[in-house]
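Q: Second attempt. The first request was missing the SMILES, so the protein and flavin mononucleotide are both included now.
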Amino acid sequence: MERRLYTGRDVSRAHGIDDLREMARARLPNFCFEYIEGGAEDETTLRRNRAVFSDIAFVPRTLVNVERREQGVTLMGQRSAAPFMIGPTGYSGMMFREGDVKLASAAAAAGVPFILSNASTISLEDVVRRAGGRVWMQVYLYRTRDFVAKLAARAKAVGVEALVVTTDSAVFGKREWDLRNYLRPLKLDWRNRFDVLRHPRWMANVLWPRGMPRFANLGDLLPPGQNSVKGATITLGQQLDPSLSWDDIQWLRDLWPNRLIIKGVLSAPDALRAVEVGADGIVLSNHGGRQLDGAVSPMEVLPEVVQQVDGRLAVMLDGGFRRGSEILKAIALGADAVLLGRATTYGLAAGGQRGAERAIEILKTEVDRTLGLLGCSDIARLDARYLRWPGHLATTVAPAVPAVHARWPYQGVSVGAAEAAPGVLPTPPSPVSHA
Ligand SMILES: Cc1cc2nc3c(=O)[nH]c(=O)nc-3n(C[C@H](O)[C@H](O)[C@H](O)COP(=O)(O)O)c2cc1C
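A: Got both inputs this time. The predicted holo structure:
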């Protein structure tokens, strides 16, 4: 039997993130879709990010009253309506006109944070003013540190709650699909130019009347006369700083008074270093498989990191999340929240703000349904006892599991939960609370 995904234009007929992905594929020219979709080199990490979820299975409780279900979480002191948020994706304006505002508005409407990429095509000030909600700002530590300091000052002036510094891009990942599509920066090959012409709906929405959208936050970084997308792309490549170190994070910590989050951590020692420099949170991330190919999936290191940081900072993660059930697997392993990358970008590309809202709606509904099916009425009670995973993951996943479970052939088996009265789960194995 062949399963068909929805490929029409009505986002309300998308029932899973994969439907939105197919809609995005139909609406976008190939070079744009590949920009969202692709990973680095052989895309092993891209696949690993997805594969890890099917290796972790649920152990549900039965006969638990789940008439009322709570999926809201408290994240760095503030309540969030769902255990996920929209992570930073650069150049969203190429997916849909004013894409950054549309994503931010969708997040605000859903009561979840939005992280604006520094490579946005709408300025930080405009996004904050037009979308409202909880806006965080992502930055790279460019060679021109003065620019970063100015951007931080702008973020402070408009009341941005958190600065998210991405640290996995000291060197740019090898994205071969991108190299193939262009003859040189922003000069598409003939095949792709022809393909663009076959997408008039996208052209009218994104290119008309001013051509390719421009980066709106990076003006001060670009040499005079080079603020075209092409000029900016070249300059940004040169601005990535391979000499980045923890001293630079300390520099940022000293100048930024609000929440500081480090995105791109993939090991427990680095998570502990983040605690030492005074970060408020980390995002375990391999950049959606777009940087180091062969890198571990954030899910694999999550329990170890949660255990080591012991509640001293918020632990978030991203990479491959396309289902509410997958988000709950991360929460059960101790994450405070999940960042969405491609999932909401597909929604945006499929249908603008309504499409991004639909992506969030789909995931919220799936989270809610999964909580019900798990026999867990409150996400704050979810823990590793609801999960089971095979031996090959045990070396990384095992630390979150209480010793009492260690004798079982599968780590994470829910003995404790099975012995407890229905609906009254034992306290979580890790001291980190999701509340
Ligand atoms: C199209 C696209 C653009 C991205 N741009 C940025 C960016 O500007 N800054 C950043 O820190 N991460 C960026 N990322 C990485 C995401 O923030 C996130 O780490 C990743 O997409 C998570 O994986 P997922 O897409 O499988 O959910 C981008 C990812 C994609 C797919």
